[in-house]
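Work Package 3 (structural annotation) set out to generate three-dimensional models for the target panel prioritized at the project kickoff. During this period the team completed the workflow that converts sequence records into discrete structure tokens, so that structures can be stored uniformly alongside our sequence database. As a representative example, we reproduce one entry of 201 residues exactly as it appears in the project archive.
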Amino acid sequence: MNSNKSELGSSFKRSQDYQEFFLRLIKSELEDELSITEERLKNWSNKKLEMNGIALFGLVAKPDGWLFGQRIIRLKPNNGENLGFQRFRQGDIVLLSRVSPITEKPIEALISDRSRNSIRIVLNEQPKGVRKGKWRMDRGANRIAFDRMRDAINSTFEENGSVPLRELIIGKVHSPANTSTLTPELGGIKQRKIMRIRETF
């Protein structure tokens, strides 16, 4: 941690140093969130997950249209009641499974929108037997936010990226005011001082 502070406090001599430093931070933050999510799923009871609003059980699903070539699935409680207290929001990453996302391979999806009695999710492919049986939905780590941060940093430091922005970030800023004070050097012309003659009347 101390090494990170000292590195952050010093100027970056190369743009690659800045890029690599913050990509490591983004990766570390994502790994931390993934480990917290995994620890929660392994050690918390279903009741505790449900009471904290980060898991829903006994859901039934059905296809509900398309969004930019991806499938939309609507999930709602099997008993027809409202979803109750839950902390799922639009844009959240969720894990869809039958029994447990730990013991089986979960389906990762994105929440499109929600109402009092249903939640619509977007995923690449429609799960097999989507209408059969019941589903469980858990809140997962938001990979999209980390992907966007990573892509933003990488795009800034691409060869065809924004050079002024890159120089501003790493502290190598061109100052037009300071440049204007420099004496111009014109090749092939003998330098001489130009005296202003004050006219008197």
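The CA atoms of residues 23 and 151 lie 10 Å apart.
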